[in-house]
Amino acid sequence: MNTHQQRDEALAAEYALGTLRGAARLRFQRRLKTEPELAAAVARWLNLLSGMDNHLQPIAPPERVWKKIALALPEKAPTHHYPRSLPWLTAAGLVFAVLLYTFVIRPSALAPLTVLNGEQHSGQWVVSASSTRDRLELTPVNVTRVASDKSLELWVIPAGRAPVSLGLIEGGSARTIEITKAISMENAVLAVSLEPRGGSTTGQPTGPVLYSAKL
């Protein structure tokens, strides 16, 4: 894949993500009408990204959640049932359903965030994130594996601050990263550097940056 093809692939990814805006998006849309290969690239990206933000993962609630649900329910109905109690029972069921969804089956959706590109290295990384950006998922697309004595390390570079390592990633598989440190992601840069096997030993990037994108 030459530089021109890499550029078009990156534009197709940005178009599918919705991050290509303004005049650049209009120019790209005009090209789509006359360049079937470019349209096919967009279709590939849309297929890749579809469903990435529709995950629902059941979460086992702690005991205190069940106590909150029990306290939120109305008192038990009396032994003698009257027609007027039916609305209360219906309301109780609705309250229980809402609380069950809120505390037990909370969605942990990941939405596409950006694409890491590299001018001198093939492939891209599709980055998805939770709404609070405390969880990232990196999916490699046509990323070339590095030599056995090297590792790829992901960094976040907050505005005006030193890079912070988010761990190692591999070109052959997706990687989910939980961000436990208090890091501001606003206007930050995500970057992937080439490091000795096992990662940087200095706490800072020591090798060339292969992929990057500003958030």
Please characterize this protein's 3D structure.
There is one protein chain. With 215 residues, the protein is an alpha+beta fold. The chain has 3 domains: 1-50, no CATH class; 63-103, no CATH class; 110-215, Immunoglobulin-like, CATH 2.60.40. It is 32% helix and 24% strand. The protein is built from 5 helices and 8 strands, in the order H-H-H-H-H-E-E-E-E-E-E-E-E. It has a 4-stranded antiparallel β-sheet with strand order 1-2-3-6, with helices on one face. The chain has a 4-stranded antiparallel β-sheet with strand order 5-4-7-8, with no helix packed on it. Strand 2 (124-129) and strand 3 (135-141) form a beta hairpin. The model is unreliable at 86-92 and 101-107 (pLDDT under 50). It comes from Pantoea wallisii. One of its GO terms (molecular function) is sigma factor antagonist activity.
The total beta strand count reads: 8
CATH class of the largest domain: Mainly Beta
Averaged pLDDT, please? Answer: 77
Structural class: alpha+beta
How many helices? The count is 5
Tell me the strand percentage band. Answer: 15-25%
Secondary-structure element string: HHHHHEEEEEEEE
Total discrete domains: 3
Low-confidence sequence ranges: 86-92, 101-107
What's the main sheet like?
Answer: 4 strands, antiparallel
The largest beta-sheet arranges its strands as 1-2-3-6
Radius of gyration: 24 Å
Distance between the termini: 26 Å
CATH topology of the largest domain: Immunoglobulin-like
| Overall shape | globular
* Helicity, as a percent range: 25-40%
Known CATH architecture of the largest domain: Sandwich
Transmembrane segments: 86-104
Protein name: Anti-sigma K factor RskA C-terminal domain-containing protein
Organism: Pantoea wallisii
GO molecular function: sigma factor antagonist activity
